Amino acid sequence: MRVTTLSEFIVERQNDFPFASGDLTRLLSSIQLASKIVNREINRAGLAQEILGKAGNENIQGEEQMKLDVYANNQFIHALKNQEEVCGIGSEENDDYLGQNDGLPSTGKYIVLMDPLDGSSNIDVNVSIGTIFSIYHRISPIGSPVTLEDFLQPGTHQIAAGYVIYGSSTMMVYTTGKGVNGFTLDPSIGSFFLSHPNLRFPSSGNIYSINEGNTGDCPEGIKNYLSWIKETDKDTRRPYSARYIGSLVADYHRNLLKGGIYIYPPTLKAPKGKLRLLYEANPLAFLTEQAGGLCTDGTQRIMDIQPTELHQRVPLFVGEKGMVEKAMGFI
Ligand code: P6P
Asked: What pTM value is reported for the model?
């Protein structure tokens, strides 16, 4: 079978875009580059912290040791700035969006929203973590300063979305609206290779991912659903299997490959859920629908939600279509 690298794939697929001038190609390639740099730092984080913790707060190059999520944020911002295609960046790590005052060109056509390193608290215990990104065309005129409205677009306007999972292997999984494809990094070469073409949610899965410790104060319907999935019924593949890593990208990726549902419900502590609409729920929703799944806030399609704030939170029900529909039936 011919082996395709991510770079070749991006170029081959740029023709999916009418009038593609290669700028989305360059944007996706800059994300690829930053993910390789972040991957390298993550893989030595434990080692670096162990050794460098004794040598004071410096890393091997003598630079100030940064928290990895700040490091990842800086790397993705730097890579995106270099491409001149991006006029605005919204990041989980930055209270406000980045625009022309932060060195981004007003001539850029694209908006990028990202969680540069989700689940970073898991690094210290060597659990998989991830980067999540979402790409839009700007709606303000090219050449003008980027505006908040450029970022507050519904998920249906996304032109690309994806994640990088830094796990037992490092993978990039993304869509531009023509299906979902997964690429695995060969660290000995430094290239991502197409390893999971045309990913689809299997309908044979029965994994459910939720923090059961949070469900004491969640809506009654969800408690009833959680009782239903624990009953024994072969025809509906029950009881389901509980798998919850506490790292969104890792839980999502496993459920995409094996079939399952991830739920972060409204709780007393997080009445609107914990996860962020713009750079967690929407990109995963785009991937999910492209992979034949369903992604809602429990009542409506995530991608139909009109955002009102950069960091707004939403409840999240995401995964295999039939499983999500069943869960929604209990709410
Ligand atoms: P809880 C990590 O902090 C995160 O944002 C997601 O990666 C993860 O799925 C979720 O929060 C875990 O939250 O409340 O179960 O610890």
From this structure: 0.93
